Amino acid sequence: MADTASKKTSIETLINRLEEITRTMENPDTGLERSIDLYEEGIAIAEQCKKRLQEAKAKIELIKPEAAASRPEAGQPKGLFDMEP
């Protein structure tokens, strides 16, 4: 169930939370116990982000060969100086 809930949270939201955690931990008024709790939460969020990025990369790798095969001109992208006049 926790995995399902994490799927609903966007990676942008997770990254925003990591930034918030970082700001709070950098505040000299944040106590040690609170910092440890935030660190633990941050590690868990970072793992979620890593997993999501790996899943996205795998999905792109699956799509990429299919897209290239369906477009014959998709071999090598043309550079600025390789374009025909």
UniProtKB/TrEMBL annotation:
This is Exodeoxyribonuclease 7 small subunit. It is found in: Cytoplasm. NCBIfam families: xseB (TIGR01280). Heterooligomer composed of large and small subunits. Its EC number is 3.1.11.6. It catalyses: Exonucleolytic cleavage in either 5'- to 3'- or 3'- to 5'-direction to yield nucleoside 5'-phosphates. The gene is xseB. Belongs to the XseB family. HAMAP family: Exonuc_7_S (MF_00337). Its main location: cytoplasm. GO terms for molecular function: exodeoxyribonuclease VII activity. Keywords: Cytoplasm, Exonuclease, Hydrolase, Nuclease. GO terms for biological process: DNA catabolic process. Bidirectionally degrades single-stranded DNA into large acid-insoluble oligonucleotides, which are then degraded further into small acid-soluble oligonucleotides. PANTHER family: EXODEOXYRIBONUCLEASE 7 SMALL SUBUNIT (PTHR34137). One of its GO terms (cellular component) is cytosol. Pfam families: Exonuc_VII_S.
